[in-house]
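Q: Entry one of two.
A:
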Amino acid sequence: MTTSLVEFSDYEANGLRLQLAGPPDDLAPYLSAYYRTEVEEGVEIEDWLPPEEANLRTGSATVYKAAIGGDAVIDVPPGVISGPTDRVTYLRIGGGKFWGIGLTPAGWARFIRLPASDMANRITDIAGSAAHGSLQAMLDALREDGDDVQASARLINETFRALPGNGLDSESAIRAVHLGFLSEDASSVASIAEMAGMKPRTFERFCKRHFGFAPSALLRRQRFLRSLGKYMLDPSMRWIGSLDTHYWDQAHFIREFRATMNMKPSEFAALPHPISGAAVRLTSMRAGVTMQALYHPDRSRN
């Protein structure tokens, strides 16, 4: 087992500190990132997070509220499983410390082992979930004593390495489909299904079980995130300059933006994005992509 130090990228401004690291090579197919967020006492921030893959999160704060899509704002439990999303997550936090761990689709299948569609667009208390008990213990430890990021990263590595996960027959197929959706050349569901060697109805069931959504929704999410990530990395550019090549025109993008983020692009641009903006910059530095859901599971972590 590796005992080398984990390299965390660090962003700090206006009472917010975000630290982000990638997993070691053996866990990179299953985990996309480890991230530590701190908000100073007396500071309260809001953000509107783009769609993402599943996460494990834990934290303690004076304010910790969230809502997915058009759902009501709720108080977030101390330790949660957040399923994959295809719409905006509103977040309001203040005076607290948080840890998060991003899961790839293969990581969800290997470690959580529930149909991803059952948890899509949901935030669930890990204490009432079917997740492995050691994951809850890990989140409890990170919440109670997570200030040492190196010790915390070792705990995360050790916890996931100890989980049972051998013999997952669908893992190679999940990886192939994941890479298919990540490809900027993928222009249709049919082309990805053909690449995966699946008939359309089988492919639909496969995607819902392992990725949370129908393949058409996943394809829309990826082109949307490529466009939004490019814009957020350089907000000085006009929206038209960030559009993915698979959009027919700007009106097509605006319709999908409103359906995904519950607002127009101009409204989003006018809002503060302290967490998501910092995450885009750090993720781009660490993994070469702007969004967690664009993370390439074969990317070297060195």
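Q: Entry two of two.
A:
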Amino acid sequence: MHRLSRDDARRIAVRAQLLDADRPADVVEVAEQLGAIKIDPTAVISPSEHTICWSRIGWAYEPGQLSKAVETDRQLFEYDGQFRPTSLLPFLWPLMRTRTLRAATREYLEANARFRADILARLTSEGELLAADIPDTSQVQAKNEGGWYGSNQVPRMLELMMYLGEVAVSRRVGRQRVWDLAERVYPTGLPEMSPEDAETALAARRLQALGIARQKSSWSGVGVAGEEARVEGSTWVWRVDPEAIAALEDDPGGRAAVLNPYDRMLFDRPRLAELFDFEFVLEQFKPKSQRVYGYFAHPILVGDRFIGLLDAALDKRKENLVVGAVHELVPFDDEEREMVHAEIRDLAEWIGVPVRGLD
């Protein structure tokens, strides 16, 4: 069993997420390490997939690099709202093909068997298509739980077929997904693997991305991958990536990072609280009167501590990055303030606009 100080545990977590001073070279390296890059249309500053890459790579990142890696080089692929490295496909494929669905979803698919076959036939004969180009021939409509779907059943059916490995997102036109048969998007000759072995391999990759996570946590999905660890001041049983332990001796140091609210570093909220003493609440879905830090506040990491939140947005004409507030969770010292302000200015310059409202 490993016994870690809280400082070392945080350093492992930060480095695993590529948020230390040693920046990665390109988007493929980012995706390989993180395992997934979240896609979200909310672009208060910049879409999540681009901010996530910029937060790691910095000035060398351009949005076109991501689309090239997905659409031309096929080193990444889109699945379930995230860009993932193609190296994960051998592990995801067996799970797609054997996915257990809820009873209501199974009934929906059975009732719409002809609709599902229509989509496959159209893609087979016509090639890749936007959802808008596929007729809705559904026999039964699904309940619109949560209000995420309209009456058109095509987007819902395509997503279910994607989960089952029948269709895939080939590319995007703007924010719209272009669909094709999975066999024409994914590489052929994937190795045979049982679902159990695939899940074990995925648990190890999840731990690689996190560095350290609570054992058997539903938030992290690491199961019992890696090695057991105890962290100073925590009663949890942790799992730690042994390669991350070995890398502690080679410490490149920390830096400032402004993180998109959908950043993978922030997903495991209990871990954030336990290791970083950081209670992050996304206020996007709160009434304005109940917001404390802003509609889409970006957490600010300096070294291995979350010290603030940036409330900023592009103006309506997208000509300026307007800073509403830099909330200090702990008082910034002069060096921290300089680092944070420099990172915000770099963010604005990367987008290509001046920053306004930053003291």
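A: Comment on entry two: The first strand starts at residue 2 and ends at 4. The chain has a mean pLDDT of 95.
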